[in-house]
């Protein structure tokens, strides 16, 4: 029978370990921003920010919408850009356009907000109120509204509690907060859900088209 002779300084496990090639991976699988603050539509990243790959469970939960057409969305009370509490129930009796957006001052969100501003008279003519919601604080909302002369309400959903309760889906595997618009009728029932992350101005076209049709 053949035998294996080992040098006195080595054991069989150590030799096998030394001969087993180690798999190589890129040093950094994270997505890093190239500048101090990179903005892509609604995504803000700093040099130290890492875009982690979420688990399959979190991906599944991020694409399941809880508020659908024909349902009554959860109510909420959030602070507006002036620090005043605003409840969704305040707008009962008239149509309400509630749009969730990723963040103040990002290119896509600025385009969307300015498009709502430019068409605001058309929304008023349709008898509808416009409410924008993001996770930014009230001071950020105030500066954003003043800089672009936004005539409608911006609400601060710090911690994204309302976003989660409404089931707003995220993009880029959960890394980018979703851009989703809801139209509620005068009874508070959701009649339209529109999602389009990368064509923010389309939200205005679609919601106006819907309001004119009802």
How is the main sheet built? 7 strands, mixed
State Rg. Answer: 25 Å
> How much strand?
15-25%
Going by helix content, strand content and strand pairing, the class is alpha+beta
Question: How are the strands of the biggest sheet laid out side by side?
Answer: 4-3-7-6-5-8-9
- Quaternary organisation: single chain
User: Helicity, in percent?
Assistant: 25-40%
**Element order: H for helix, E for strand:** HEEHEEEHHEHEHEEH
Number of helices: 7
Kindly state the mean pLDDT as a whole number? 80
Poorly predicted runs are 1-40, 45-64
Shape: globular
Question: What's the short version?
Answer:
This protein is an alpha+beta fold and 214 residues long. The protein contains 7 helices and 9 strands. 29% of the residues lie in helices and 18% in strands.
Provide a descriptive summary of the structure in words.
It is found in: Plastid, Chloroplast thylakoid lumen. Residues 67-214 form the Thioredoxin domain. InterPro entries: AhpC/TSA, Peroxiredoxin_BCP/PrxQ, Thioredoxin-like_sf, Thioredoxin_domain. One of its GO terms (cellular component) is chloroplast thylakoid membrane. Belongs to the peroxiredoxin family. BCP/PrxQ subfamily. It is a single chain. With 214 residues, the chain is α+β, with helices and mostly antiparallel strands. It is 29% helix and 18% strand. A hairpin with a 5-residue loop joins strand 8 and strand 9 (190-195). The termini are far apart.
């Amino acid at each position: 029978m053949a035998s294996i002779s080992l040098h006195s300084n080595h054991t069989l496990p150590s030799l096998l370990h030394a001969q087993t090639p180690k798999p190589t991976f890129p040093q950094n699988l994270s997505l890093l921003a190239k500048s101090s603050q990179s903005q892509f539509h609604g995504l803000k990243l700093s040099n130290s920010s890492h875009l982690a790959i979420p688990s399959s469970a979190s991906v599944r939960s991020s694409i399941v919408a809880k508020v659908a057409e024909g349902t009554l969305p959860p109510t909420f009370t959030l602070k507006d850009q002036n620090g005043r509490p605003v409840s969704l129930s305040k707008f009962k009796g008239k149509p309400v356009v509630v749009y969730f957006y990723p963040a103040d001052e990002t290119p896509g969100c600025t385009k969307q907000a300015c498009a709502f501003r430019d068409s605001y008279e058309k929304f008023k003519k349709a008898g509808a109120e416009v409410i924008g919601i993001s996770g930014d604080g009230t001071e950020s909302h105030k500066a954003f509204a003043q800089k672009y002369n936004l005539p409608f309400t911006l609400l601060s959903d710090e911690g994204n509690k309302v976003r989660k309760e409404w089931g707003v889906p995220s993009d880029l595997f959960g890394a980018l907060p979703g851009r989703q618009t809801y139209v509620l009728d005068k009874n508070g029932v959701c009649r339209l859900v529109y999602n389009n992350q990368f064509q923010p101005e389309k939200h205005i076209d679609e919601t106006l088209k819907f309001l004119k049709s009802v």
